[in-house]
């Protein structure tokens, strides 16, 4: 679930995923509640979502800080995920839109061009276009504008103008062809995305339009303005119906534990229950005489508690809206309410400096817990329901035993008021955050000992704190909107991490002298990005531990091993993982090349064969070339280098060889380690296209007669290329 809230001078991105994190006292039951008027619950939900989603993202300089998200110079007005969930866009009062990679929190790019606050961002359904809504000053007044950007490179595609006041909301139709924009000029405008044409202007709202949304089928548009919602038929712009609800600002909302019902508390002094599936208003709960500030469902979802500026808490039966009882006793505003895990007790914190415990079944005030000297801002039950923590404007945290309401201890150390308290899942530690002293502190519940103080990466103050469900991390939201996730150093971690070789020579393989190994690890508590690694080659000393994910080394010829081990934040060192391999640093033997003789009478064809060997890695490929130099000339080939695969002979045809020229074959071999041998050369073959001349030098003369029964002849020959001794006669 994604929520957006504007808060003057504050920087805040609110992203919530139900059931991911322990909720603070002001978050109802196992559901989730956002107090629009109060930012602690909102920010805590954001901390939980980001810590669960990005445990291995950008790590800050402090070794136990594992994730931070921030970057805008002013308040964040809107966020939106791309359809594939891989990119997050944020619009800010610093006049920019930032695109972030979700997997690791990397800032991909910053889109500039707006001259004032960006109030809304939305991705097109195909994720290729981003729309942003905002305003600009035309010299006499603010006017609204919408900008369309290409996501892949941040190019500004077009600027849509026409609104006469700020654009607070933009939305794409499901087919991505139409864009709707809602403005403070009380209008909704429909634009054709392909060319920016204004298709239609919908009028009728009395107040500025702060939200627009298309129905899934693209037939209907919903717009929110003031205290009403209007539904429009897109085909012709007809107003279908107006959903009237609250008559003043909504201060808090809470989901029931089953997620089917939404409760909203408002400054109009009412609570409304809505059916989540279709938005139907189920009922309106009336009775408070002042603004409703906090609402919370009981763990079983059957009862709703509401706290108000009228100094009362009211308990309502959810099924029919019946007011079960009104809890009175607080002397000032009720700022927070929380049910115990078993739903039998309700705790309330007030500006009257007290915490009150009530029996839910009959509304009996069980005990008033006094001791705080200023407003109680936050209350939280321990997971077993036996201890209650309260954070106050008097700079202290107090721990109370629920069974007899005894004050167990007062925890001091903060130098400014405590804005949030949260128990770890095992109930052994408590986290508290302070806005004024800009610290997060971790305390041991059993004796109140201060275990850890985070005074780095706390910015201008801490709004809210939370533990992850397994207690391995603690998260906080800073006043400047930055979310910080850190390791909880007090989680028992008896298990050692496991290292894994991700890249490098395969087991038993033969490789070249330069080897690269990449590795990673997993641990039950420490995130992968926080693990450290140590490695060694052969029997060398182990390297120091570092977060480097790999190593490259040049090794000598012969067998080798590589080992790596991981260390977690608790200091546990895992068993090494070892891989054996062979380094072949010696190339194959120089090929011996035979080209078929000293001469050839074929000026279009040459053949050769060759042999080479490599006992370790074997021969993976031969290449050959043909030239006119006794050694490889490096250029000017008659036939340029080409692969023969693993063949040991080749024939080249279609050549245009020159008479009297000697041609040489050059062959080189590549072994299994990737090393090339030097080129071997044949002894050359000369092209001879002219036949030799032959003459008879002895014997009977031409045309003569002889009476002898036998005759003897002698002869000789000459050739333009071959020596006479190389001639053969028939």
Features of the shown structure:
six-stranded mixed beta sheet, 730 residues, Methylamine Dehydrogenase, Chain H, 1 helix, 61 strands, single chain, 47% strand, disordered N terminus, five-stranded antiparallel beta sheet, Lipocalin, 6 domains, elongated, 2% helix, mainly beta
What would your notes on this structure say?
With 730 residues, the chain is mainly β. The chain folds into six domains: 1-18 and 40-69 and 371-488, YVTN repeat-like/Quinoprotein amine dehydrogenase (Methylamine Dehydrogenase, Chain H); 74-248, YVTN repeat-like/Quinoprotein amine dehydrogenase (Methylamine Dehydrogenase, Chain H, 7 Propeller); 261-358, Beta Barrel (Lipocalin); 498-583, Immunoglobulin-like; 592-687, Sandwich (Immunoglobulin-like); 693-726, no CATH class. Helices cover 2% and strands 47% of the residues. It has one helix and 61 strands. Strands 52, 54, 55, 57, 58 and 59 form a six-stranded mixed sheet that branches. A five-stranded antiparallel sheet has the order 3-21-22-23-24. The longest helix has 14 residues, at 40-53. The N and C termini lie far apart (100 Å). 44% of the residues are buried.
DSSP helix fraction: under 10%
How many β-strand stretches?
61
Q: Give the number of domains.
A: 6
The N- and C-terminal alpha carbons lie at a distance of: 100 Å
Classify the fold: give the CATH topology of the largest domain: Methylamine Dehydrogenase, Chain H
Question: Summed up, what is this model?
Answer:
This protein is an all-beta fold and 730 residues long. The chain is 2% helix and 47% strand. Residues 1-63 have low confidence and may be disordered.
């Amino acid at each position: 679930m994604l929520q957006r809230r504007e808060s003057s001078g504050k920087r805040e991105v609110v992203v919530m995923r139900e059931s991911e994190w322990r909720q603070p006292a002001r978050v109802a039951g196992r559901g989730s509640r956002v107090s629009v008027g109060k930012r602690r619950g909102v920010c805590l939900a954001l901390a939980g979502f980001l810590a669960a989603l990005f445990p291995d993202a950008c790590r800050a300089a402090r070794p136990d800080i594992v994730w931070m998200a921030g970057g805008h110079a002013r308040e964040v007005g809107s966020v939106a995920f791309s359809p594939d969930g891989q990119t997050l866009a944020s619009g800010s009062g610093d006049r920019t839109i930032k695109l972030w990679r979700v997997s690791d929190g990397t800032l991909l790019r910053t889109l500039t061009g707006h001259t004032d606050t960006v109030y809304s961002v939305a991705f097109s359904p195909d994720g290729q276009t981003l729309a942003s809504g905002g305003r600009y000053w035309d010299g006499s007044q603010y006017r609204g504008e919408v900008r369309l950007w290409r996501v892949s490179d941040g190019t500004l595609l077009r600027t849509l103008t026409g609104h006469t006041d700020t654009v607070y909301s933009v939305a794409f139709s499901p087919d991505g062809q139409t864009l709707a924009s809602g403005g403070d000029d009380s209008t909704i405008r429909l634009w054709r995305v392909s060319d920016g044409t204004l298709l239609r202007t919908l009028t009728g709202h009395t107040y500025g339009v702060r939200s627009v949304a298309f129905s899934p089928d693209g037939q209907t548009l919903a717009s929110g303005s003031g205290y009403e919602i209007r539904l429009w038929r897109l085909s012709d712009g007809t107003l279908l119906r107006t959903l009237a609800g609250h008559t003043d600002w909504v201060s808090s909302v809470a989901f029931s534990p089953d997620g089917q019902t939404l409760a909203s508390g408002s400054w109009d002094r009412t609570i409304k229950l809505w059916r989540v599936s279709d938005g139907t208003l189920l009922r309106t709960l009336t009775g408070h005489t002042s603004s409703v500030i906090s609402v919370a469902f009981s763990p079983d979802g059957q009862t709703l508690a509401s706290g108000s500026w009228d100094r009362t808490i009211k308990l309502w039966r959810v099924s029919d809206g019946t007011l079960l009882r009104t809890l009175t006793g607080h002397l000032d505003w009720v700022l927070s309410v929380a049910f115990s895990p078993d739903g039998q007790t309700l705790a309330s914190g007030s500006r009257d400096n007290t915490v009150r415990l009530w029996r839910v079944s009959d509304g009996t005030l069980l005990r008033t817990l006094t001791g705080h000297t200023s407003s109680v801002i936050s209350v939280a039950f321990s997971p077993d329901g036996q201890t209650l923590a309260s954070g106050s404007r008097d700079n202290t945290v107090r721990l109370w035993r629920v069974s007899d309401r005894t004050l167990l201890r007062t925890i001091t150390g903060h130098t400014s008021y405590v804005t949030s308290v949260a128990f770890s899942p095992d109930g052994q530690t408590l986290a508290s955050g302070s806005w004024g002293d800009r610290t997060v502190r971790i305390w041991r519940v059993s004796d109140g000992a201060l275990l850890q103080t985070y005074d780095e990466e706390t910015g201008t103050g801490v709004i809210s704190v939370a533990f992850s469900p397994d207690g391995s991390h603690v998260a906080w939201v800073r006043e400047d909107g930055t979310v910080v996730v850190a390791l909880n150093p007090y989680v028992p971690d008896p298990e050692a991490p496991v290292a894994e070789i991700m890249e490098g020579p395969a087991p038993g393989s033969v490789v070249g002298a330069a080897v690269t190994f990449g590795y990673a690890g997993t641990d039950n508590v420490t995130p992968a990005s926080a693990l450290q690694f140590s490695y060694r080659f052969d029997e060398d000393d182990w390297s120091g531990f570092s977060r480097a994910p790999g190593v490259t080394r040049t090794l000598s010829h012969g067998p080798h091993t590589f080992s790596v081990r991981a260390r977690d934040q608790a200091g546990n060192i895992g068993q090494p993982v070892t891989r054996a391999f062979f380094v072949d640093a010696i190339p194959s033997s120089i090929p011996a090349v035979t080209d078929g003789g000293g001469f050839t009478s074929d000026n279009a064809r040459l053949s050769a064969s060759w042999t080479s060997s490599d006992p370790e890695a074997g021969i993976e490929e031969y290449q050959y070339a043909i030239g006119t130099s006794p050694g490889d000339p490096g250029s000017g080939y008659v036939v340029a280098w080409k692969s023969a695969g693993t063949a040991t002979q080749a024939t080249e045809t279609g050549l245009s060889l020159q008479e009297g020229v000697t041609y040489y074959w050059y062959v080189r071999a590549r072994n299994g380690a990737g090393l090339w041998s030097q080129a071997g050369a044949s002894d050359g073959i000369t092209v001879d296209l002219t036949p030799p001349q032959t003459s008879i030098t002895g014997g009977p003369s031409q045309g003569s007669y002889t009476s002898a029964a036998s005759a003897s002849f002698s002869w000789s020959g000459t050739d333009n290329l071959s020596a006479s001794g190389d001639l053969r006669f028939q």
